[in-house]
Write a structure and sequence with these properties.
There is one protein chain. This protein is mainly alpha-helical. It has one domain. Helices cover 81% and strands 0% of the residues.
Length: 195
């Protein structure tokens, strides 16, 4: 177990510093994208980054900002995609149908909570962006709520990972890497199996 950790440790810490930042940004960005973000293990990745920050992989506060900004940019793509989807009649009918109005009114009233806490819920984390765009939410208000949710998610993940790495040691990092690889593999397998 220890030799596996040493190999993993040298793999992660052997990456150039700029590549580390880009890798963290790429996962956070992917987590914010519609549909794709629902399948990426973004919370697990932020825990892993937090655990690795304990060994100097990345400055934890810098990681928090990179994750929050990457997630925001991914969510903005979802927001603008939601606006563009209104060009399709079926989507317009779904979003503005009379029989759906009570559900959408509920979304509109609680949009802040859905957007902020939706970042923490794995499967639905990227869908509020589409809904907010389709419901023509004000962009500034949307960005404000996404930043709150993204920073909560990033701070919780990074500091949770740091704490767990201190408590469980090297086995924690290995378990997270296995979970991330299995999550991505299961998502890809499920996608192609259903086609």
């Amino acid at each position: 177990m220890e030799s596996s950790y040493e190999q993993l440790h040298s793999l992660f810490l052997g990456l150039p510093e700029l590549f580390r930042y880009l890798l963290v940004f790429a996962f956070a960005f992917g987590e914010g994208l519609p549909i794709i973000g629902s399948f990426l293990p973004g919370g697990t990745v932020s825990l892993l980054i937090g655990g690795l920050s304990e060994d100097g992989f990345i400055n934890p506060w810098l990681a928090v900002h990179i994750i929050a900004i990457g997630s925001l940019i991914g969510d903005l793509i979802g927001f603008f995609a939601g606006q563009k989807l209104l060009h399709f009649k079926k989507v317009r009918d779904f979003v503005y149908a009379e029989k759906q109005q009570s559900k959408w009114d509920l979304f509109d009233r609680h949009a802040a909570l859905v957007i902020i806490f939706g970042k923490i819920i794995p499967v639905i984390r990227s869908t509020p962006a589409l809904f907010a765009g389709a419901r023509k939410m004000h962009l500034g208000e949307y960005i404000f709520f996404v930043l709150i949710g993204s920073y909560l998610w990033a701070i919780g993940g990074i500091w949770g990972g740091k704490y767990l790495a201190q408590y469980f040691g090297s086995s924690f990092i290995i378990i997270l890497v296995v979970i991330i690889i299995l999550s991505i593999a299961i998502s890809i397998y499920s996608h192609f199996k259903n086609k």
